[in-house]
Every structure is written in structure tokens, then in C-alpha cells.
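## Example record

The block below lists the input lines for one assembly entry, exactly as stored, with component labels intact.
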Amino acid sequence: METHVMQTLQSGALYRNTIENLEAAGNLINLNPNVLERLKVPRRALVVSVPVRMDDDRVQMFTGYRVQHNQTLGPFKGGIRFHPHVNLSEVAALSALMTFKNSLLNLPLGGAKGGIQVDPSTLSKTELESLTRRFTSEIGPFIGPDKDIPAPDVGTDSQTMAWMLDTYSMESGYAQTGVVTGKPIEIGGSRGRDSATGLGVVYTIEKALQSKNMMISDANIAIQGFGKVGMHAAIEAYALGARIVAVSDVTGGIYNERGINIADLVSYVKENRFVKNFPGTAAISNEDLLELNVDVLAPCALDGVITEKNCECIKAKIVAEGANGPTNSVANKYLHEKGVLVVPDILANGGGVVVSYFEWVQDIVWLFWKEDEVRNKLREIMYRSFDKVWQFSQEKNKDMRISAMAVSLQRLETAMKLRGQAW
Ligand code: GLU
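Predicted C-alpha cells for the full assembly:
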């Protein structure tokens, strides 16, 4: 039955794309139809109104969401996004992607996502803190260290997590550091969490290049986005000797075919906020960056940037999806047929939630690991997950996206059968 809620969920392209991929992978592995039906919709979706007293004393209302998709494998887990485009359909799609990501990476976690429709750059720090605290309070009854554990996503960071932790702990009456991950190290965060998603992207790039008999030290890379994911991907790839020829942020990109000095760029961005006008580079638009003739293209910003409109112009040999949902189904199919290796989001950007999982474990035992330990364990999981997906794709002659989804669904199906959820 086409309910109003179903219509709302299906109104977004990312949701429709995600369900399409789910159905395609489900058909490929003869997934139990009851499992498929359950995974097409989130378990629970919470919509909250968040009042904030703004600096000018006016009360402004914001809309926030927490969508809990599935908890067969463990507590719900996934980030909180602050962005003007946040809506129920997008958050629901992203929550489903978290379920598939966590299952693929073999983590004992379910999938969720949250967000607030807001442009955080237009708010003062006090307003942002009030917004975060009130939102946490509103979703408070539904989250918790063994229920649902938020983390940073687009537009949020370790400070956001610190406020969430504090609000949640105040309301429970004692410190509950495990309620969020991606928090500062001083209050229970993990070493290596900040760079985890970017580092994970680079580990999968290494593997993807290997499959084409190439090494990262010989590769040209273009990265869209220079935030939590893109900047760290650039730092890690640069440290391994890759030539980063272009990077970008919301204000546009920079390009130098001989490579950009990423260490200098990081200092420059600390002072100037944006990458534009970095000495020794030419300006390039976000759209043109995607079409550069490079070995690897890493879209590490938002979803829906590679579509039927521009896929024919993509020249990269490998696309590593640091963002969630950057390539739509039509573009994915076209690129695969052209021989471009697309490393899908649930694999390529999984490093963030892997180290979130490490952080959660460290908070439970109150014993903290060295950065090397975190990186080594992360590398092991990323390599192993890549190999599993690669092997499936070779055996079945399928693209990496459907293969990643299929590997993920196989684990979910077994767990759902064992728990008696797939009558
Ligand atoms: N927001 C990140 C993601 O999309 C991290 C989620 C988490 O660590 O829970 O994977």
C-alpha cells in the first residue's frame, strides 16, 4: 500500500537508488523475500522540532531526524548530519546504507542516521550548541550506549559530539561516554578517529590500484571535498607518495598537474578556511574536477555528483566513494561497462564507522589503544572487506557496488534467520 510515509521516503533520489541496489543485490543472491521486504523500510523514524533561542532573542524552530533502520547485528549506529538539504527521505536512505556498511565490515552494529535541516555556517557557536543540546534531548529516549550511538557526519564534528555526550550524561545523571563516537580524545574519543574515514578510503584505493597492477606512489588522484574525509584522504595518500592533482571544497577547487603539496595546503586551509587561491595552483570548478584525466577520482563531499549528466565525461580509472551515495545507479552501470572500477561508499568510506566501533569498545572497557594499533586494525578490516567484495565480483562477474551489497546482505540474512526475523 502506498502510504503517505512511503511516498515521502521514495521522494528522494538517494532512497530510490538505495532500494534499487538492494533489490538488485537481493535478486542476485536469491535473498529471502521477507528479509528484503524488511530491509526496504526503516524500523523507526523520529522527527523532532527543535526550538533554539537565537542570539537576537528570537526563537527559531528547526526540524531534526533520527532514523533507525535495522538492529539485527547490534545497536543502531550512524552519524548526525547538519545540512540545509537534510530531509526524512535522505536520512532514511543514509540509515539503510549504515546497516549495509556495518554488515559488510563485519561489525556488531545496526544502522541509523540523523540530521537537522540547517546550514551550520550561518549559526553562531552559541546557537549551534543550543541546537545540538536540544536536539540531543529530544532524541534522548531513543539513543544510548547500547541502543543507538550517533557520530559525526557532514556539518558536524568532535565538538558536536562533546555537546551531545554532555547533554545525554546530564540527563542520565552520570557520564556516559559511549553514547557517541567521534568525540574528542580527552573525553573518551579514540586515537585515529579523525583521520579514519580518509585513511580507509586510501586503503581501498591501494587495493583497487593493485587490481590494475598499479601502485599508489605512481598514481594521480583528484579529490572532491577537503573536509573530514577528503582532507585526510589527501594527507594519507600524499604521505604514500601519490600525486594529488586537484582538491576542492564548497567554494571551488584547485589544480596543479604536477601535484599539490598537501602538507602546505593543510596549513593554508587552517588560516584561510578554504582551498581557493592556494599558491601555485589554478582554479577549477567542482564539476570540472570530476572530469579530470586521473588514475583515481575520490568524491568525498555529497551524494548525487556523478549521474547520467556527466558520467560519460569521467576519465578516471578508479572512483573511490569517500562520500555516501555520490554515484547514482545509471552512472554506476555506465562506468562499470566502460571498465572503471567504482569502489562503493559502503566499502570505501567504511573506515569512519570501523574506528567508531573501536572507540565504542574502548569506552566499554576504559582501556585506550595507541594510534598504531588503531591504524593496523583498521587496515586489516579494510583490506579484508575489499578482498571479500572483489572476490565476489570476480566470481559473479558483477560490479563492486552490487557485490558489496550482496556480501553485506548474506551476513544480514543469516543473522535475521537465526533471530527468527525472516519467517
Ligand atoms: N558518518 C559516518 C558514516 O557515514 C560515520 C558513522 C559512525 O561512525 O557511526 O559512515
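Residues 196-348 form a domain with the Rossmann fold fold (CATH 3.40.50.720). Residues 392 and 398 are 8 Å apart (CA to CA).
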